Amino acid sequence: MSLSRAPSFMTALRVRLELKAYTLIGGGRVGNVIEHVKDMIIERVKLGKGSIASVHCKLMPLVPPTSIKGVLRSIAEKIAKRLFTGSSIPEKLAILHHQPTPFEEDARRRSNLLVINTVHSDMRDVATLGFEIQTLEELERNGVMDRIPLGVDKGLRIAIPKDESLKKAFQEYLRSLKAKPSERLAIMLQGLEAGADKLFEIWASTLCPICILFGSPFRGSALRFTALLPAGLRVELARRYHVAIERSRGIRAEGKLYSIECMEPGTILEGLAYLLLPPAPPEAEDSDSVLSSEYSKALDCAQKLFEALMKYLENLDILIGGATSRGYGLAKLSLEFINQELNRQRYYFRSN
Ligand SMILES: [Zn+2]
Questions:
Q1: Is residue 14 situated within a structural domain?
Q2: Residue 164 has pLDDT above 80, yes or no
Q3: Which of 27, 29, 180, 242 has its CA 20 to 30 A from that of 66?
Q4: DSSP characters for 53-107?
């Protein structure tokens, strides 16, 4: 058996968004809303002899893929905490996965770890976020890593999870690095400039079902959306007026009125999504490694999480776009398989 590098699973979905309230797409940057809410679409292209003779364009309101993905990721983070029990490494990582709070960023700053935001950390562990810090030299001394290439600063610090099973699996991964060609190890260690916990995040995002579905700074996303365009390519935009509230006193600001251009309730937008459960990363190709056995569990968890997400969307509405605290953005999002049911047959193992 070896891991196939071809996409393990791919399916296409129809995405439909029905707005139930006025919806502001564009992050609430009111002054520039027209730039944010609209994008150029090509309506008609006429070809002359061997060349394009004319192109007709118009501005079209749309929902960008990043908005849809952001909403779904934050729902998936909530579902994961209820769906998974933490009985495997991928389940544990999914439960830990969250967007860092300002408090956590502060805790990280105090331990001089601020190159990236750690999304797989324990929020309950106030002081250390669930990590202990070890230098490369200490790891080398303890036999977790050896043959650290010349030129790499052995004083670099790596965040090691305190949770026993995570720690064991992460150290296993660090140990497996030493068996790799030194160039690959050197490249990974270069990523550790300034002694961050990047190595932990690279490992964690490979096995975290949420990162598999929605991507991380270190891996692409299995779920890919197109922009959602109004059904029938026609939509009315509404302009709504609000009184500005003075932030410090919480009362109406004298003489300040502003307007928001937004989409009307009842508008239906449509697009497509692709779910492409990815092949194993190169580190997991060695079928004997812990990483490769955990990786197949991670793909199972990602499928389970995606199914739960679809159930959630069947039952509940979402909030999307800007100004949701002012009552904007209530909508019904539905995902529907175009070609097939999400089958559980797995393609990522291939017999030799
Ligand atoms: Zn994650």
A1: no
A2: yes
A3: 242
A4: EEEEEEEEE-B-HHHHHHHHHHHHHHHHHHH--S-SHHHHHHHHB-PPPHHHHHH
Cα of 260 from ligand 1 centre, angstroms: 35
Q: pLDDT (tens digit, 9 = 90+) per residue, 139-156?
A: 888 777 766 666 667 777
Name the domain count of the chain.
1
Q: Where does the chain show beta strands of DSSP type E?
A: 2-3, 9-19, 38-47, 52-61, 131-135, 157-161, 223-225, 229-230, 237-246, 251-263, 268-277, 318-319, 330-337, 349-350
Residue 183 lies inside a defined structural domain of this protein: yes
Which 3-state string (H, E, C) describes 237-271? EEEEEEEEEECCCCEEEEEEEEEEEEECCCCEEEE
Alpha carbons within 13 angstroms on the beta-carbon side of residue 180 total 23
88 CA to middle of ligand 1, Å? Answer: 14
In a domain, 75, yes or no: no
Please give the distance, rounded to the nearest whole angstrom, from the Cα atom of residue 310 to the centre of ligand 1. Answer: 19
Reading the block at residue 94, the tokens are: 């999914």
Residue 108 lies in a domain: yes
Q: What percent of the chain has pLDDT over 90?
A: 23
CA 122/CA 95 separation, integer angstroms: 9
* Cα–ligand 1 centroid distance for 109 (angstroms): 21
Query: What amino acid is encoded at 276 in this protein?
Result: L
| pLDDT tens, residue by residue, 181-192 | 666 666 566 656
Residue-number span of the structural domain to which 113 is assigned: 98-207
Q: Extract the tokens encoding 320.
A: 């999307």
Please give the model's pTM, rounded to 2 decimal places.
0.78
Burial category of 97 from C-beta neighbours within 10 Å (exposed 0-12, middle 13-18, buried 19 and up) = buried
More confident residue, 112 or 158: 158
Lookup: tokens for 127: 């002081």
CA of 172 to the centre of ligand 1 (A): 19
CA of 308 to the centre of ligand 1 (A): 17
Write the CA distances from 26 to 30, 51, 57, 266, integer angstroms.
8, 36, 21, 19
Contact in structure between 114 and 202 (CB atoms under 8 Å): no
